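Problem: given the chain below (295 residues), write out its structure.
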Amino acid sequence: MLRWTLVTIAAAVVIAGFWNYHVVDGFGRDVVAGRTIGDTSRLAQGYDAYGAGFGFLFAAIAGLAATFTACNCVVFAMLPGLICSTDRKRQGARPWRALGAFVAGVLVVCAAYGLYVGTLGAEGVAAYNERGARLAQAQTVFTTIGLVMLVWGIVELGFAGALVERVALPVRAFFGTTTAKAGIIGTLVGLFAVGRPFPVFREFLTYAASAESPLYGAGVMMVQGLGQIAVMAVLFAVMVWLGGRRLVRWAAEKPHQPVLLSGLALVAGGTFFVFYWGLAFALDIGRWGFKLGWY
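Solution.
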């Protein structure tokens, strides 16, 4: 178990160190957004021309465009935990309830964030989107999320058994339920939007804030939240649809393996965030590909 954990941490650090944000950010900006709605930097100032309805389309594309960025790719590390949190003893609606709890967590956080964005107005969002402010925000939010994921992964892998046993049994029972785990995962993913510095997303924030309506901000931010998890949700649905019975049988026959998989995935995602957004920025020890002149 320890060996697998150390290998996972090392692999996550290497991926974070060599992460080429130009490629993934450019794909989201030029391909996903550019080939659907056009130049988002121009559209950001176009609320008066395009109206409230276009904001929902802008929101969906902004969320989808962020799928593989460094501030969202870790969403896929949540997938094993979400699937493995489903009930091993019963099939039917259980996986979909887990997905529903996950989506609900995303939407609640995005709605709250959108309410705030809707109060900013044009001047307020300009200051909010200033490069220094948004990078500091990203570092704080994603490093914190990464630490939460690391701790959760360590608990899942059994390295903190003595501490866990000190927690009251009702509390452990609640957080061990399918709904609670899926909801927590959804909440963490929803917080991705709060820290996201991705230019397309920040341009969407400018458009949303221009309406000067908290309710409108909440509405479009929720659509953005659905966009950022769309690919993951489709993968989840396909895996459950094609392999639901096998997953249940696998979990019943080898219960330690799903726990190992979900725990390692959380450790990998948490390590990526902590290194990429925390240590690499604070100590200037990242961006290896750029420093080596590879890209």
